[in-house]
TrEMBL record:
Gene: ecfT
Source organism of this protein record: Dysosmobacter segnis
Keyword Transmembrane: yes
Self-association and partners: Forms a stable energy-coupling factor (ECF) transporter complex composed of 2 membrane-embedded substrate-binding proteins (S component), 2 ATP-binding proteins (A component) and 2 transmembrane proteins (T component).
Protein name: Energy-coupling factor transporter transmembrane protein EcfT
Molecular function, one GO term: transmembrane transporter activity
Length: 268
């Protein structure tokens, strides 16, 4: 299960998606999320699914990597769908048992919610798969740069987000090693009820927290040794510049958003 968590991973490549400016990709994901939550009917979600499929094709990442990233979220996705199916109010119900009621509208809402979460997760994962943490930090800092006028620590916030994203795969690998070591000593994480399984995770959490704090201390020491003092006066090795492909991509994202909004108004 831990190997299926792909958040924070970067797949190097030379596709159009990889060459886009990181600011463009952040803005495109923002437009994508707005369009996704604006979709109301089957046509709107079909447009978003086709858009994601086209982006996956262009990125050369592969659909399998995105689907693998959904596996740790299967329970949350299924639970959300069940809640929408049984607790959506309607005037006519297909099946009733106590407070549980199933209607055509409830089933439709459940399907829409499941599709929305899946498309949302895969779309945001695609950005991290095609953007290195360093470029993602530079892009985020550039977009938030106007907030410096009101004394918001933009560089520090961007750096913290990038470090957190970068260390997710490292901590997952560390957790997998600790679990393997505990299993070799006879630990059992699979049997028992949910409370017994949660109790069995305590021997994993303690060394994991110790390892995380040790890595944080080592990182802080390394940054201090390299005379890191925040973003004031720092220059960039690779200066971000918008290209023609960035403007074309942003225009395409705006068109998709407008199309979804029109479909929503038409009830499609």
């Amino acid at each position: 299960m831990l190997k299926d968590i792909t958040l924070g991973q970067y797949f190097p490549g030379n596709s159009i998606a990889h060459r886009l400016d990181p600011r463009t990709k952040i803005l495109l994901v923002t437009l994508y999320i707005i369009a996704l939550f604006s979709a109301k009917g089957w046509m709107g979600y079909a447009v978003m699914a086709v858009t994601l499929a086209a982006c996956v094709k262009v990125s050369h990442v592969g659909l399998r990597a995105l689907v693998r990233g959904l596996k740790p979220l299967v329970f949350i996705i299924a639970f959300t769908g069940i809640l929408n199916m049984f607790f959506t109010p309607d005037t006519h119900y297909l099946w009733e048992w106590g407070i549980l009621r199933v209607s055509v509208k409830g089933i439709e809402n459940a399907l829409f919610m499941v599709i929305r979460i899946m498309l949302l997760v895969m779309g945001t994962f695609l950005m991290t798969y095609t953007t290195s943490p360093i470029r993602l930090t530079d892009g985020l800092e550039s977009l938030l740069n106007p907030l410096k006028k009101i004394h918001v620590p933009v560089h520090e916030l961007a750096m913290m987000m990038a470090i957190a994203l970068r260390f997710i795969p490292t901590l997952i690998e560390e957790t997998d090693k600790i679990m393997s070591a505990q299993k070799a000593r006879g630990a059992d994480f699979d049997s028992g009820n949910i409370f017994q399984k949660a109790k069995a995770l305590v021997p994993i959490l303690v060394p994991l927290f110790i390892s995380a704090f040790r890595r944080a201390d080592e990182l802080a020491t390394a940054m201090e040794c390299r005379c890191y003092h925040g973003g004031e006066g720092r220059t960039k090795l690779h200066v971000l510049k918008y290209q023609r492909r960035d403007y074309v991509a942003l225009a395409g994202g705006a068109v998709i958003l407008a199309l979804v909004v029109v479909l929503r108004r038409l009830g499609a």
